[in-house]
Specification:
Blueprint lengths: L1 H13 L5 H8 L6 H13 L5 H18 L9 H10 L3 E7 H10 L8 E5 L3 H11 L8 E4 L2 H10 L2 E5 L6 H7 L3 E3 L11
Parallel strand pairs: 1-2, 3-4, 4-5
Helix pairs in contact: 1-2, 1-4, 2-3, 7-8
């Protein structure tokens, strides 16, 4: 969804209609936040760096379209899994996307109530994970991180927490396990009932 949204933004704002989806997918999951992804796309397609104003415009335009695309609320079908997790664990939602947008989408989808804290960009995943551990006086052994990319595994391992990966179509389960994922699942509804 994000790759298609970014392609729409680049087409509407800069007249670039081809190649954005494929290029965005290549940099997705690398741990880059949205401004870093936009800078890479600018270099590749426009052969220059974006201005601060252009970065802000892309951020706002992307946020608008992304929020519109999330009306289906992909996590909503797993509400019972989220309810159970929140009763047993400290739960937090972490994204590299702009924190304001993540909070707005979580509220729109009725998901905000299932998380003790919602975190987002511009902080890195590692910074946000460390924040959760320190702020809530948790040991790394008490944290289970559910992510959807190789960069989530890398971030989790840097701070010493266990990680489960939500498998996307283009991820190989074997590759994700080789990188250190404790489990690979297709949906939050498959979350293990017991610890790992």
């Amino acid at each position: 969804a994000k790759a298609r949204v970014m392609a729409l933004v680049f087409k509407e704002k800069f007249g670039v209609g081809k190649g954005i989806v494929a290029a965005y997918r290549k940099i997705a999951g690398t741990g880059k936040n949205r401004p870093e992804k936009v800078q890479a796309l600018f270099q590749q397609f426009l052969k220059r760096k974006p201005t601060k104003k252009e970065l802000q415009e892309v951020d706002e335009h992307f946020g608008f379209h992304y929020e519109q695309s999330m009306h289906a609320c992909p996590l909503f079908r797993c509400i019972s899994a989220l309810e159970g997790l929140k009763k047993r664990y400290f739960t937090f939602l972490l994204s590299l996307e702009n924190k304001r947008e993540v909070v707005r989408i979580a509220r729109h989808c009725g998901l905000a109530a299932y998380f003790h804290e919602i975190l987002g960009g511009p902080k890195s995943k590692v910074e946000n994970l460390q924040h959760v551990i320190e702020k809530h006086h948790l040991s790394s052994k008490e944290v289970l991180y559910v992510g959807d990319s190789a960069s989530d595994i890398v971030a989790a391992k840097k701070v010493g927490v266990k990680v489960i990966i939500l498998q996307k179509d283009w991820h190989s389960e074997r590759a994700m396990r080789k990188l250190g994922a404790e489990a690979v699942i297709r949906s939050l509804c498959e979350m293990p009932e017991r610890g790992l």
